[in-house]
Amino acid sequence: MGIVDKAKNAAEDAIGKAKEVVGDATDNKDLEAEGKKDQGSAGVKKVGENIKDKLS
């Protein structure tokens, strides 16, 4: 994957972490869950990037 895709995934992870922290601080369970989901999605994409990089 290109550097742009890696940057987008890193940003998605960072946004997810921020949502989780804000959700926890404000007792907003929906926002907290959304943040965890975003982080999970970014993690899956990162694994895919690593596999693709190794195969290239």
From TrEMBL:
Pfam families linked to this entry: CsbD
Gene3D superfamilies in UniProt: YjbJ
SUPFAM superfamilies registered for this protein in UniProt: Hypothetical protein YjbJ
Region (Disordered): 29-56
Domain CsbD-like as annotated: residue spans: 5-55
Regions of compositional bias (Basic and acidic residues) in chain numbering: 29-39, 46-56
Family statement: Belongs to the UPF0337 (CsbD) family.
Protein name: CsbD family protein
